[in-house]
Write a structure and sequence with these properties.
Elements: H1 9-18, E1 29-35, H2 39-52, E2 56-62, H3 65-72, E3 81-84, H4 87-95, E4 99-100, H5 105-109, E5 115-116, E6 120-122, E7 126-133, H6 146-155, H7 157-160, E8 164-167, H8 173-185, H9 189-198, E9 202-204, H10 207-215, E10 221-226, H11 227-236, E11 240-243, E12 249-252, E13 255-259, H12 265-276, H13 278-287, H14 303-310, E14 314-316, H15 329-344
Parallel strand pairs: 1-2, 1-3, 8-9, 8-10, 12-14
Antiparallel strand pairs: 3-13, 4-13, 5-6, 6-13, 7-10, 7-11, 7-12
Length: 351
């Protein structure tokens, strides 16, 4: 049974109306947030926080996952709050002493599976998806599972040559994490990577770049996109279809923490507490596609509603010590060497 997520215009309108509404607050205390999370997506949350805390000057800096990690490690200019989808890097920052515990009721009550040491908190529940152009269905059956995708790349290689896109595990921390997780959940992960290589896959650093390429026709098929971005994009681009895989779907969580050396710790703690609060999560569930973690929140975008829609094949990436192995330099180098090898393994021999 095909399970595709369909979305109305309500979310899009709320995003458009919210955009630019908060701006940068002018107050008595500054709050510096280094984030790998598009401001357009999270704007309703920022606007609500700014409205409730008008004396806090909100400085939100949207960057790539690896750049956020570098900024968090800069001793000369530490941020107050760090947010990223590169879950292993966030956990490693905490393990290296860069995070401070959050002493707040919201932190104590947060589910154990979505936090680490009361320091780092997974506050979203975002499915990882495939996306394709509508015209692809005129030439081949659209993929619903990872096996379907492998079959398409094998049987329709000439059609798909140069028209497939995914994350670069070198340029993107979240992309690297997702491919590592694929290798955990299916023995055919490396076959899939080899088949993408044979189809001359393009590798991008962000989901946004993948979506732009799908819409302008450069790509027909995208793999391992962040569902939160893809769902918003599909609302205004009806030629793009978002598919949650029916065999298994990884779920990524944005992770947030208060920096150990936060120059404005009170404002930082207030912001992270707001992200975890019922109020903050209600905004996530109703006005963003980031999906609320809390089970006492009702809205179109909650973890429970996603489970009800998609079924029992959602696999949240666990927030535990196993993530630390992914950022081990030797392991990462070994993974990337195999990645390079597999991308070329099905290339025809040169004369």
């Amino acid at each position: 049974m095909t399970r595709r997520l369909h979305f109305g215009l309500g979310l899009l309108l709320s995003l458009c109306l919210g955009a630019g509404s908060s701006g940068t607050a002018r107050g008595d205390e500054r709050l510096i947030i280094e984030a790998a999370l598009d401001r357009q997506i999270v704007e309703p949350v920022l606007a609500a926080f700014a409205a409730e805390n008008p004396r806090i000057d909100l400085d939100y800096r949207d960057r790539s996952t690896l750049e956020v990690d570098r900024r968090a490690r800069d001793p000369e200019s530490p941020p107050d709050v760090v947010i990223s989808s590169a879950m292993p890097w966030q956990l490693a920052l905490s393990n290296d002493g860069m995070a401070q515990p959050l002493d707040a009721p919201e932190a104590d009550q947060w589910p154990a599976w979505a936090k680490w040491r009361n320091e780092v908190f997974g506050f979203t529940f975002e499915p990882v998806v495939m996306a394709y152009r509508l015209e692809l269905a005129s030439h081949m059956p659209p993929p619903e599972t990872h096996r379907d995708l492998l079959d398409l790349l094998t049987r329709y290689r000439q059609w798909l040559d140069g028209r497939v896109v995914s994350y670069s595990p070198r340029k993107s921390g979240v992309g690297y994490t997702l491919f590592q997780q694929d290798a955990r959940y299916t023995p055919r992960a490396w076959d899939l990577i080899a088949a993408m290589g044979a189809a001359n896959v393009d590798l991008e650093a962000t989901t946004q770049r993948m979506l732009e390429g799908l819409s302008d026709g450069r790509y027909w098929l995208g793999y391992n996109l962040l569902g939160s971005y893809a769902m918003v994009w599909a609302q205004t681009h009806p030629d793009i279809i978002v598919q949650v895989p029916n065999d298994y779907s990884l779920v990524m969580m944005r992770m947030a923490f208060v920096h150990r050396d936060a120059p404005h710790p009170a404002a930082a703690k207030r912001f992270v507490s707001f992200l975890l609060s019922q109020r903050g999560q209600h905004i996530l569930a109703g006005q963003t596609p980031l999906f609320s973690v809390r089970d006492d929140v009702v809205g179109p975008y909650t973890a429970q509603r996603l489970r009800d829609q998609v079924g029992d094949h959602l696999y949240p990436i666990p927030i535990n010590a196993t993530l630390l192995a992914f950022v081990d330099p030797l392991r990462r180098q070994a993974f990337l060497r195999r990645w390079d090898r597999e991308l070329q393994i099905l290339e025809p021999p040169k004369p």
